[in-house]
Design goal:
The protein has 406 residues and is of the alpha/beta class. It contains 14 helices and 17 strands. It binds 4'-deoxy-4'-aminopyridoxal-5'-phosphate.
C-alpha cells in the first residue's frame, strides 16, 4: 500500500464532486478522456487572465511570458517521458502525431514491395494513416495478430517482421483490452532488423512511468487530454535524426527561418513541425498536468490503479454471464465486457441513469472487435482518482441494471 492519501488526491478534481441524474458520479471512462485537477484548470485560467499573448512573435512582456510558459511546458512534458525537449513536437494529439510520421517519414520513403506491420489491437488512429500511406506508395499492410487473451502473439510478430518490413506501428497499451505490450522487447526486435517503430502511447503515459530512451522506439505519440491535460494537446517524440531528416508536414508561420518567392528555409526541429499558432493555453495546462502527475509519481499511479483493477476484476468474476474481452496477464485498468442477453449500449445507457459513466461501442478499434466476433463492448476504464467505493457502486448499479433488462 502506498503512503499517498488518495481521498485527498481525488479532492483535486472538482468535477468528481458532481452528481449525474441525482446520483454521485462514478466516472469510469478515463480511457476516453481523463478529468482535470484544479491546478490544470487554474493554469489555463491564469494564462488567459494574466498573460495571454502569441508565442515566439512578440518582444513585449506578455509575449515573452507566454513563450517562456509554453517552452517550459515542452520541457516538463519531455521530462515526463525521459526525452530531450528538442525532440518533442507539440501537436493536437496522437492522431495528429501519427499522421505527421505517416506523411513526413513514411510517404517519401515507402515504395511498392515495402510492408507496414500494424497490430490487430490498434486504435483507428494507428491504422488508417498507414492505410492512406500504403495506398499512396504501393506499400502493403500486414497485421500482427493476437492470442485469444488479447496479448500480442510475439512468435507470430517475430515471423512477420521480415526483410520487406519498413515500419512497425504498435500500441503501448490497448484502449479496449488494457493489454500492456512489451514495447521494449518489440522495439528491440524491430531495431535489430532496421525497422522503424512507432509506438502509440495514448493509454500508457497517463498510467505508468514511460521512458522513451529505455523503450528504444523511433517515434512515440501521446495525447494530452488523457494525461489530465486540456483537449487538443499532445506530443510526438522522435529521435532527433528522424526529425532532422523529415520534411515539414504543414507549412505556415513559425515553422520557417526565411521565406521568399525563390524558396523558403525551414526552422529547426521541433519548430519545423509546428506551423501556425499553437494551443498555447492548452499546452500550459498540459505542462501543469505533467507536473501534477510527476509530483504524484507515475509509479504510485500505476500501483494504485493495479490495486483498483484487482478489486474490480474480483467483483466482476462473481457476475454470471459476464464475458471479459481482454485477459492478458499484463493489463492496465481498462475492462471491456459483455453481458449475456444485454446490448452494450443499453447497459451503458442504464448505467448512466445510475450515475455511472462507461463507454459502449467499438472504441475506434473495428478490426479488434471483429477478432472477438462482437459488435460492441461496454468499457469501464479506471484512473488513480477512482475509489474502491466507486467499484462497489458500479457493482450495485450493474445488478440493478441487469434486473431491469430482465
Ligand atoms: N490511440 C489510442 C490507443 C487511443 O486510445 C486514442 C484515443 N481514444 C487515440 C489513439 C487517439 O487519440 P486522440 O483522439 O486524442 O488523437
Amino acid at each position: 500500500m502506498s503512503a499517498i492519501d488518495w481521498a485527498k488526491v481525488r479532492d483535486d478534481f472538482p468535477l468528481l464532486r458532481r452528481q449525474v441524474h441525482g446520483k454521485p458520479l462514478v466516472y469510469f471512462d478515463n480511457a476516453n478522456t481523463a478529468q482535470k485537477p484544479a491546478v490544470v484548470i487554474d493554469a489555463v485560467d491564469d494564462f488567459y487572465r494574466r498573460y495571454n499573448a502569441n508565442v515566439s512573435r512578440a518582444v513585449h512582456a506578455l509575449g515573452s511570458e507566454a513563450t517562456d510558459a509554453y517552452e517550459a511546458a515542452r520541457s516538463t512534458l519531455a521530462r515526463l517521458i525521459n526525452a530531450r525537449s528538442n525532440e518533442l513536437v507539440l501537436c493536437s494529439g496522437t492522431t495528429f502525431a501519427i499522421n505527421l510520421v505517416a506523411y513526413s517519414w513514411a510517404l517519401p520513403r515507402l515504395a511498392p514491395g515495402d510492408v507496414i506491420v500494424v497490430s490487430r489491437m490498434e486504435h483507428h488512429a494507428n491504422i488508417v494513416p498507414w492505410q492512406l500511406i500504403a495506398e499512396r506508395t504501393g506499400a502493403q499492410i500486414r497485421v500482427a495478430e493476437l492470442l485469444p487473451d488479447g496479448s500480442l502473439d510475439l512468435d507470430a510478430l517475430d515471423k512477420a517482421l521480415d526483410g520487406a518490413v519498413k515500419l512497425l506501428a504498435i500500441a503501448h497499451v490497448s484502449n479496449v483490452l488494457g493489454t500492456i505490450n512489451p514495447v521494449r522487447e518489440i522495439c528491440r526486435m524491430a531495431r535489430k532488423r532496421g525497422i522503424i517503430s512507432v509506438v502509440d502511447g495514448s493509454q500508457a503515459v497517463p498510467h505508468m512511468p514511460v521512458d522513451v530512451a529505455a523503450i528504444g522506439c523511433d517515434f512515440y505519440a501521446f495525447t494530452g487530454h488523457k494525461v489530465c491535460g486540456p483537449t487538443g494537446t499532445g506530443a510526438l517524440w522522435a529521435r532527433r535524426e528522424h526529425l532532422q531528416a523529415m520534411p515539414p508536414f504543414l507549412g505556415g508561420g513559425e515553422m520557417i527561418k526565411e521565406v521568399s518567392f525563390e524558396g523558403t528555409t525551414f526552422n529547426d526541429a521541433p519548430y519545423k513541425f509546428e506551423a501556425g499558432t499553437p494551443n498555447i493555453a492548452g499546452f500550459i495546462g498540459l505542462g501543469a498536468a505533467a507536473d501534477y502527475l510527476t509530483t504524484l509519481g507515475l509509479d504510485q499511479v500505476q500501483a494504485r490503479e493495479a490495486e483498483l483493477l484487482a478489486h474490480f476484476s474480483e467483483e466482476l468474476s462473481k457476475v454470471d454471464g459476464l464475458r471479459l474481452i481482454g485477459t492478458a496477464p499484463d493489463k492496465a485498468a481498462v475492462v471491456s465486457f459483455l453481458i449475456d442477453g444485454a446490448h452494450a449500449h443499453d447497459l451503458a445507457t442504464l448505467l448512466d441513469l445510475e450515475g455511472v459513466a462507461v463507454r459502449s461501442g467499438q472504441h475506434c478499434a473495428h478490426p479488434l472487435l471483429q477478432f472477438y466476433g462482437v459488435a460492441a463492448t461496454c468499457r469501464a476504464s479506471l484512473a488513480f482518482y477512482n475509489t474502491h467505493e466507486e467499484i462497489e457502486a458500479f457493482m450495485a448499479a450493474l445488478t440493478k441494471v441487469r434486473r431491469l433488462l430482465g
